[in-house]
TrEMBL record:
PANTHER family, sorted: ANTIBIOTIC RESISTANCE PROTEIN MCBG (PTHR42999), PENTAPEPTIDE REPEAT-CONTAINING PROTEIN (PTHR42999:SF1)
SUPFAM superfamilies: Pentapeptide repeat-like
Bilayer-crossing regions: none
Name of the molecule in the record: Pentapeptide repeat-containing protein
One protein family per Pfam: Pentapeptide_4
InterPro entries attached to this UniProt entry: 5peptide_repeat (IPR001646), PA_immunity-related (IPR052949)
Superkingdom assignment: Bacteria
Amino acid sequence: MNLPLKDNENYHSIDYYKNVLTKGEYTDCTFTNCNFENADLSNFNFVECHFVECNLSNVNVIHTTFNDVVFNDCKILGVLFTNCNTFLLSFKFTNCTLDLCSFYQLKINQTQFLNCSMHQVDFTDTEAKHVVFKDCDLYQSTFDRTNIEHADFTSAYNFQINPTINRIKKASFSKENISGLLESFKIKIK
């Protein structure tokens, strides 16, 4: 199916809850201060797009393409990224709230999460090699059979990762947050 192409366009302060975004392929577009809450973005293509100060909570992203997409200062609650088109999937999140999102069974290698709130995020069976979790709050996020080899957790906090059920070879942690690896062993650290 050929989608209409939108190239190098800027969208400002639009409420897509009231005004439905035209289904299409958006390339090098910027969405600033837009409300997508509960919007149906299924089968959309976003390539090299920027979302700045947008609300994308509970959006439907079934078969949605995110290729080299950047999210800055966005509220993204409860999004099931696991439903996205996995071909060329790549994104970066800075200063975002990603609570209750799911990356279940996705390959998100080399993704950068910078200064994000990531409470109760599901990384079960996710391949997250070389992922950066810089200054991220991972409170009650699930790492189960997750491949986080070479991932950077040195400034992440509130995580609990069981080394016996996850692949953590060459992942980086700091002395301050190492207790997140030992919680599952019920060890007391003083």
